[in-house]
Amino acid sequence: MAIENVNVKVKINGKERCAKVEPRTLLAHYIRDDLGLTGTHIGCDTSQCGACSVMVDGEVVKSCTVLAVQADGSEITTVEGLGDVNNLHPIQQGFWEKHGLQCGYCTPGVMMAMVGLLKQNPNPSDEEIREGLEGVICRCTGYQFIVEAVKHAAQIMRETEVQLVGEER
Amino acid sequence: MTKVVGARLKRKEDPKLITGNGYFSDDIQLPGMLHAAILRSPHAHAMIKSINVEEALKAPGVVAIYTGKDLEGKIGPVPSSWLVPGCNLKEAPQYPLAIDRVRYVGDGVALVIAEGRYAVRDAMYLIDVEYETLSPAVGQKQSMQNDAPLVHDDIENNIAFHWKAGEIPEEVCENAEVAIRQSFYIQRVAPSPIETRAAIGQYNPGSGELTLWCTSQNPHIHRMVLSGVLEISEAKLRVIAPDMGGGFGGKIGVYPDEALVGYAARDLGRPVKWIEERIEHFTASNYGRDEVLDVELFGKRDGTLSAIRVKNTHNVGAYLSTMGPGVSTIDFGLMVTGCYKIPYASCETFGVYTNTTPTDAYRGAGKPEATYQIERAIDLFAKEIGMDPLELRRKNFVQKEEFPFTNAQGLLYDSGDYEKPLTKALEMFDYNKFRETQKELRKQGKLIGIGFSTYVELCGFGPSKVAGAIGFQGGVWENATVRVHPSGKVTVYSGTSPHGQGHATTFGQVVAEKLGIPMDDIELVFGDTKAISMGWGTYGSRSVAVGGTAVSIATDRVIEKAKKIAAHELEAPVEDLIFEKGIFSVKGAPGFERTFQEIAKSANMAWNLPEGLEPSLEAQSFFDPENFVYPFGTHIAVVEVDKETGQIEIKRYIAVDDVGRVINPLTAEGQVHGGIAQGIGQALWEGTVYNEDGQLLTGTFMDYAMPKARFFPEIETAFTETLSPVNPLGAKGIGETGTTASTPAIMNAVMDALEPYGIKDIEMPLTPEKVWRAISESEGK
Ligand code: FES
Ligand code: FES
After folding, report:
1. Where is the Aldehyde oxidase/xanthine dehydrogenase a/b hammerhead domain (chain B) (predicted)?
2. Chain B environment of A41 (Cβ under 8 Å)
3. Domain-by-domain residue ranges, chain B?
4. CB atoms within 10 A of CB B519
5. Residue A133 and residue B500: Cβ atoms within 8 Å?
6. CATH no., domain B17-134+194-246+251-284
7. So what's the ipTM on this one?
């Protein structure tokens, strides 16, 4: 009665990757355990905290709530795909510059969610950012510096016309 | 060169965290690693009739299953580490798995080990446990009654301890012109770091070394306690706290779960990983607070306060946790007078066992509760005598020239100037104008209110001698080693173990300033008992005041030795050596210089050292402070209550804190913001709900209301700086101030808003429903 494992193939952070997983494997576990990209975190198991947020085909998705098989064939961006230490994405610059993180556990997911927000609204007000943070929980920062971080990132992006992830490059 | 200490530097720890290169517990993958899951009791109180694991053992991938009976005699109970003396403390043994009786929803019943994350859960649900349910003890007041069910058969009335401190002469209370009596409930809250707890064990059968990675705020305490529980020498037990996704007190405790993982790894000779699920965090991780406070505040009509008498009934849960007994006694009971000069105080605390998850220290531990009751009582008192609450505060403040000040419970406050942050806060906020506006708005039927919280907090644990006297089963000094490499780059080893506070940056700033070297040349190592000889961890806002001081002293020692080497090379007397901005030079002899890097090389090469001086440049400090430190401040909250819905909106929030020397204003502000969010969470949204059967109704983030971004206005912060005399940095402690101050500020504000209805108190959290009910009921009167 064992259910056969299935091959899930994605393009993640620009690279084609695949792994054979149980059909019930969550996208979050697939990314972390099978593809070894551990920047995406799990914090709640019930789709509340947003620590597991990634971008699938340009949409922000809570990867603890999606099966890996559902993402088969899609294009995924995780925190590792935003930028590296020598070439930080504006959102990463914003979080670093404005102290938008403390323990840093929620941060990858929060940054992905905020990339999603900036995609829809490149010049959000404080209030709009706070509303945009509705799907995430950060226990450390009290959110204020996250708001600052997002504003900072938005400004960099407007000034430099940096492209957001998930768009045609 | 600009000053490094006091500079708003961005953090060293961030590049890895923002690029997804953090290394958290669940990121650890070891060859041959097994997964563990703990089957937990669905009942609050029940006898275990039988456990049938046959089916589960047959499930694919299962390697082992242990029950409480299997482990009897193999792992000892996990002890509490704060055995407060003089209170008839009765510690019930907490075995890593329940043996014949479960005592709370979440009590561990069986440990399952299998190949794979999902397989272990499949197997766990195949275990068949037959329970015979018992009536549970829920709620501390009820559980003390004679007819209440007993959590532990031999512990009468479920009283875990009964502690008392302070005497008030009878006539002081009897002759008081005014007496305020009010009962407050500080509800149970879940620390809820976004990363849950975790443990990974790896055993080397050849060397006999057991390595345990775990989410610990104090790995050396984990090592000390677990080496006893698992009967393994400290030298063979290595505890590593990797990157951690927050703690807030929830990761201080040594839990049965970590002992189980260590045991299984050793028993099976294979690595074992256990990652707590969020629901387990709610059922099996220690909670904070849960104290009923019966408060009486006495004084005169003119606002002179004479005495405070408090009874604290503390729900300790089913077992005594690591720090549990100290929270409602020492931490709370000695601080009941707050920042006021109240001549007499007494506190009586009952610790009560119930069939609920244990409670332990949670951000602030006892001090938020102490601050809450006094700050709320002050407001009630002010109202009673018709005085402005701010004036009553000022009238009773300990005055600047009275420090060091011994409070009525015998604590010596190190330094303070309570007017200073208050004045600053009032510069940021026009109080008189607010009162006028409030009058206007009230006429229009709008409910707007202001709340003050002028607080003082005991931080910086803190003299080991005192720790011993108050029954803490450990020292509270701190250890640091500063190691200078031949290149002049530096590694600092610290016994504190941060989980988001940014020690690499703040401690780095202390070292960079002293040595005159770039921040990039300094790395901090923490959280590994093999790398760091000893330490007592991060909690109770002790890191900078105690751990940072150890770093500072060790750095001074390095400089002292380096000076000797430089003097030798420059052929000058040591007394004539000056060390500034990373350069050793000779007084009055320009050009005679050595850089810090040159001396680092000389020290390590040892080709030409002064007679009798050992090679290498490295120094250690074991700093044990003389006293605690006492940060203080003023917080102001302005709220508006919607009388139709009971909804509360925070209009303004001002926080002026005095935490002594601020090493990094950026991270300090971050700490204040985070702390305030947690304190406001306690006031308005968070709260654990057990029903009368002891069932937990708030077991996920779907039903436990965590603070969200849109609930807050922008928080306005400022600092004043009153240095502490008990450490050379002058630092006090900042991690808990926001949590301590904000809960009463918000409550006072809401009560002020509801003044037209004559409402004196509403139990936290102030959900719209409760507020609406209170309004409706009072309207009906
Ligand atoms: S882990 Fe996915 S939302 Fe919390
Ligand atoms: S930074 Fe710790 S949870 Fe957000």
Report:
1. 19-135
2. 24, 26, 194-195, 245
3. 17-134+194-246+251-284, 361-461+627-779, 478-623
4. 16
5. no
6. 3.90.1170.50
7. 0.96
